[in-house]
Amino acid sequence: MTDTTIVHLLRHGEVHNPDGVLYGRLPGYRLSEDGVLMAKAAARWFEGRDVTALFSSPMQRALETAAPLAETFALPVTVDDRLIEADNHFEGLTFGVGAGSLRRPEHWRYLVNPFRPSWGEPYKGLAARMRSAVIRARDTARGHEAVCVSHQLPIWILRLHAEHRRLWHHPTRRECDLASVTSLTFEDTRLVEVAYAEPAAGLGTGPGVAGA
């Protein structure tokens, strides 16, 4: 018999970030009030599904997004460091011209290769670690469903990899909104479907690319 397993990649909710910095892996960035509502909306979306395993990035915003799911399904949250945000040279800075970091020449050398990318964690390495996290979740929840709470760029790169698309891209073209769900369906170990949903559509102020 064939086992059908679904691994859902849930992006965290909106973050309290009044200064608009690229917060990346910096500690202390919690969900905003709307972000908390998004996390609860995502948990409601999962109600009635066969979720038997819950994993999360170690970042505060991800763990806070996982909390309503843990309560809904009475599951522990297993922290998996492979689900963490991508490393980025511009972490802690505002990004852009004007008062942003792009105005300063010492940062320009990090922008020479958008295909790798030169400013942060290589896309291929990011795809590899996310794939290994998904395999762990798939094997843990075999025949059922698992949820992995992560971040925009890691989720999007994994999806591009799963769909055999090129990994380099423009950030504004990512289909991975706040508290969105990217679902990977497996028949045994074979990926057969990629789906996308937005349980928290209409909440918050926008896609929130900064920090992700």
Automatic annotation (TrEMBL):
A Pfam family annotated for this UniProt entry: His_Phos_1
Coiled coil segments of this chain: none
EC number(s) from the headed UniProt entry: 3.1.3.3
Keyword presence, Hydrolase: yes
Cellular component terms (Gene Ontology): cytoplasm
SUPFAM superfamilies referenced in this protein's UniProt entry, alphabetically: Phosphoglycerate mutase-like
Protein name: Phosphoserine phosphatase 1
Gene it is expressed from: pspA_3
